[in-house]
Amino acid sequence: MWKLSFLFAVVANANPSWEAWKAAHGRNYLTAQEEAFRHSVFTKNMATAVARNEIEEFATFGADDWSDWTEEEFLSLCGYIPQEDANIPVAPRLNVTDPPTAKDWTDTATTPVKNQGHCGSCWAFSATEQLESDYILQTGKKSELAPQELVDCKADKSQRNGCNGGFPSAAYDVVEALGGMEAEPDYPYQGRNQRCQFQKDKAKITITAYQSVGKGDENEMKKYVGSTGPLSVCGSAASWSGYHGGILKTCKSGGGHCFQIVGYGTENGVEYWKVRNSWGTSFGEQGFIRIEMHKNLCGIAMAPTKVTAKDVDETVVV
Questions:
Q1: What are the residue ranges of CATH 3.90.70.10 in the chain?
Q2: 59-106: per-residue pLDDT in tens?
Q3: Of residues 53, 234, 277, 298, which has the active-site annotation?
Q4: Is 296 a catalytic residue?
Q5: pLDDT value of residue 11
Q6: Separation of alpha carbons 28 and 234, rounded Å
Q7: Which residues of the chain does CATH 1.10.287 include?
Q8: H, E, C per residue of the chain
Q9: 1-69 — its CATH code?
Q10: What is the predicted pLDDT for the residue at 3?
Q11: Residue 118 among the catalytic residues
Q12: Can you name the CATH fold of 78-318?
């Protein structure tokens, strides 16, 4: 019943006409050749959405902001570059035997959904979101930080070129080395590579440590999210194109992407992770996607991390 009612709710958007989709998404092409090409891409993507709707039991796919993008263009949003030799400290296992059946840290320990734009900076957003969340939970204060700082800066203030991809733990190292992150208004997001413009006197929050939490172990991750807070994670997002809502139960490899687990729950007997993405609120469920739990779906358990945060020049909050 859920699947049928959801399909009826989105049928108007699942296969819109080309002209209606262009008007809704503000598309204007410079040449007839470009429009013909984009129309062909759109048609192919709509056929893919129809095929996904046949396969997925509890998730629905259709037109979205990226429906005239090729697969290669869509994957440019996915900027996770794994560091297999990263020596990330491992957090002690939690003594939690009965985590809650559902948990959602949205708004309680998160800032609003962000938008990375046409830049492979997901890793910087995931790291920024984790620092923001842990800062809220460890200090009781909220601040929106500047992922552009991580896109631009290496630890020595040289240029990073972060739209070409990265890894959250590398971002944590940069924040520690620079001495903090500036607030978003002081270092606004541009969605492109720039020279590093970090100013230490504007830094608000820094990291004193970070740890891996339950790598490869979704039960441990569930204990952490249920008892302690969100987690920065990375995985594969190649299957997320066209996602409208519901619980994703299949995921192909490719499209390395970083995001944040902000909760979990159960629907129709299926346990799921609630994931906060960085593609704006037009993506999925107001910027979120739900992914089936206990299958390492989309590689969600490959790199979960948390941080210890503090105000710049203040003592660590423990």
A1: 78-318
A2: 999 999 999 999 999 999 999 998 766 689 999 999 998 999 999 999
A3: 277
A4: no
A5: 41
A6: 34
A7: 1-69
A8: CHHHHHHHHHHHHHCCCHHHHHHHHCCCCCCHHHHHHHHHHHHHHHHHHHHHHHHCCCEEECCCCCCCCCHHHHHCCCCECCCCCCCCCECCCCCCCCCCCCEECCCCCCCCCCECCCCCCHHHHHHHHHHHHHHHHHHCCCCCECHHHHHHECCCCCECCHHHCECHHHHHHHHHHHCCEEECCCCCCCCCCCCCCCCHHHEEEEEEEEEECCCCCHHHHHHHHHHCCCEEEEEECCCCCCEEEEEECCCCCCCEEEEEEEEEEEECCEEEEEEECCECCCCCECCEEEEECCCCHHHCCCCCEEEEEEECCCCCCC
A9: 1.10.287
A10: 46
A11: no
A12: Cathepsin B; Chain A (3.90.70)
Q: Are 212 and 305 in contact (CB under 8 A)?
A: yes
Does pLDDT of 9 surpass 50? no
Question: For this structure, is 257 an active site residue?
Answer: yes
pLDDT tens, residue by residue, 183-240: 999 999 999 999 999 999 999 999 999 999 999 999 999 999 999 999 999 999 999 9
- The sign of the CA dihedral 225, 92, 134, 140 is positive
Rounded to 5 degrees, what angle do the CA atoms 246, 268, 291 make? Answer: 40
pTM assigned to the model: 0.92
In this structure, which amino acid lies at residue 18? W
- Catalytic site residue from 122, 153, 234, 298: 122
Q: In this structure, which long-range contacts are made by residues 175-178, counting pairs with CB atoms below 8 Å and at least 24 apart in sequence?
A: 175/127, 175/131, 175/150, 175/206, 175/207, 176/206, 176/207, 176/208, 178/149, 178/153, 178/203
Q: Which of 234, 251, 257, 258 is catalytic?
A: 257
